[in-house]
Amino acid sequence: MKRLRPFIVVAVLIATAGAFIYYFTKHPEVGRQLRHTSFGLLVWLLVLYFLSIVALAGTTVATLRLCDLRVRESESFLITAYSAVINFFGPLQSGPAFRAAYLKKKYDLNLKKFATASLVYLFFWGVYSGLMLLYGLLHWWLLALGGLAVAAALVLKQVPLVKQRLAGLDLRWWYFLAVATLIQISFVALIYYSELRSVAPGTTFSQAVIYTGAANLALYVSLTPGAIGFRESFLVFSKHLHHVSGSSIVAASILDRAVYVVLLLGLAVFIFGTHASRRLQAVKKATS
């Protein structure tokens, strides 16, 4: 399966690119929607994406604190930014592997603890995304369900099997990670809302919340950089929940990918154009 994975990824990317091109040529309204994009919106999206990277760095800090490892916030941001760049432009999704190799090499991080702490982050990401996806059905009941989810998370830590799995983690940072993940996912929702309002001005915030939940859940099955193809599939299959049209999904996705690539290129220029890259040299030895 590992040998086939690169070919599967390439096949999915080619199929997705072909589908985008075909849809774009058959639906000229997508081009018209994108032509309404203002320069101010592009700047706003870049700011939001940068803040989401900062929030992601906050989740990295919390994840490492769960492992009883302290790193400076600046280093956490650098690791996160570098991971995001190589996760998108590198082979397969190599960002997590880079983080693990770098932290193991420099701090002798316990990789078993780190894997467990990363699962805690994915747990919170999944809970928040699932609640957002169900927002259209639950409406204000979502707050009550969210409260129950928090209570369940507190109880979950005391379940013997889970408690055994979490042994060795500094669970005081459990709550910090929950808040940091919520902040990160909130920035993502604002990004999608801004993009959807640009291509489909009638989009409501509740639609954007549901849309965000569907897009985020694609993370769990994605093989491609930035979940290309998988995220769009999730959004199309969940149209009956968020009621965003296919042309708006395609237009918003094109806009989103373009802005994200620009941000990553900017981060790459910063990392490799300054002395920051020297601080990441240890990982080359660790992965060689």
Characterization of the model:
- With about 290 residues, this protein is mainly α.
- It has one domain.
- Helices cover about 75% and strands about 0% of the residues.
- The chain is built from 15 helices and no strands.
- It has helices spanning about 5-25, 30-35, 40-65, 75-90, 95-105, 110-135, 135-140, 140-155, 160-165, 175-200, 205-215, 230-235, 240, 245-275, 280-285.
- The two termini are about 25 Å apart.
Keywords, separated by commas or semicolons:
about 290 residues, mainly alpha, globular
Q: How is this structure best summarized?
A:
By secondary structure, the chain is mostly helical. It has helices at 5-26, 29-35, 39-66, 73-89, 95-107, 111-133, 135-138, 141-156, 160-165, 174-199, 205-217, 230-237, 239-242, 246-273, 282-287. Helix 3 (39-66) crosses helix 4 (73-89), helix 3 crosses helix 14 and helix 4 packs across helix 14.
What percent of the residues sit in helical stretches (DSSP H or I)? over 70%
Q: Which regions have little confidence, pLDDT < 50, spanning 5+ residues?
A: none
Distance between the termini: 23 Å
How can the largest sheet be summarized?
none
SSE arrangement, N to C: HHHHHHHHHHHHHHH
Count of all domains: 1
Q: Output the radius of gyration.
A: 20 Å
Average pLDDT, rounded to a whole number, is: 77
SSE-based structural type: mainly alpha
Instruction: Please work out how many helical segments DSSP would assign.
Output: 15
What amount of the residues lies in strands?
Answer: under 5%
Tally of DSSP β-strands: 0
Note the overall shape. Answer: globular
